[in-house]
Known about the structure:
The structure is a single chain. The chain is α/β, with parallel strands linked by helices. The protein contains nine helices and six strands; from the N terminus they run αββαβββαααααβαα. It has two domains: 85 residues; 176 residues, no CATH class. The strands form two sheets. A four-stranded mixed β-sheet has the order 2-3-5-4. A two-stranded antiparallel sheet has the order 1-6.
Amino acid sequence: xxxxxxxxxxxxxxxxxxxxxxxxxxxxxxxxxxxxxxxxxxxxxxxxxxxxxxxxxxxxxxxxxxxxxxxxxxxxxxxxxxxxxxxxxxxxxxxxxxxxxxxxxxxxxxxxxxxxxxxxxxxxxxxxxxxxxxxxxxxxxxxxxxxxxxxxxxxxxxxxxxxxxxxxxxxxxxxxxxxxxxxxxxxxxxxxxxxxxxxxxxxxxxxxxxxxxxxxxxxxxxxxxxxxxxxxxxxxxxxxxxxxxxxxxxxxxxxxxxxxxxxxxxxxxxxxxxxxxxxxxxxxxxxxxxxxxxxxxxxxxxxxxxxxxxxxxxxxxxxxxxxxxx
Length: 326
């Protein structure tokens, strides 16, 4: 009979040790696997941060138009505060028409240049009129709504228009009253001048007691301070010139705005149009989606790249330590 091999129970077949090359291969494989895991974890963390940034960016994009409209509404700048309009002599105002002889026109223009508050209301006409065509004892008149100031020829000869600035300013005061002074303003003036018991037009009172005429006289004194003519009505001198000048100036500014509107620097119209277009765009969702994708990709890529740099620094440090140990 043939012999058989002896059976040794509970004896494992010994494994042969790995060769140095196989050990190095396994170590490198394990290292590469952990490197990939770490890179994936870092990328996932970066993607989460990118999503958070995307939420913040989309939120800002949603409220940006509203906030910008609010800021531009408050940020309107009146350019006249920083760059004043060029000073133009009142007589050179192109909206003023002067009808009369060449000599009379020169006198009127010289008188207009003495006024503190230039004539800026739209297209007033100043007509030199024969005395017989004027009301009795009238040096000047103002017609509304024709916007015509008539000056008697006698004023031009007495002497050579010496009182003309005051008379012109008086009629311009009537113009300001008719076109821009409102009922609260008239009531305020009458209180300042003690005309509480009278109607604005006087209601049959003497010329010197009519509040409307007193307003024109006060305006004339303040508008033509160089004129030797004082207040002709019975209201007397102005108690507080500063207060009265501020009151008249408040209404005189309205006349300025009727011809030359305020020069404003404002982005409001542009921003409103932009925000309206932005909020009604059907592609807004695609824009938000693009923001999310971009932020996620950039966040993941940046985090993975940073982790890769850290791994390489550790590998270089390990290699240097092994070289030094050898």
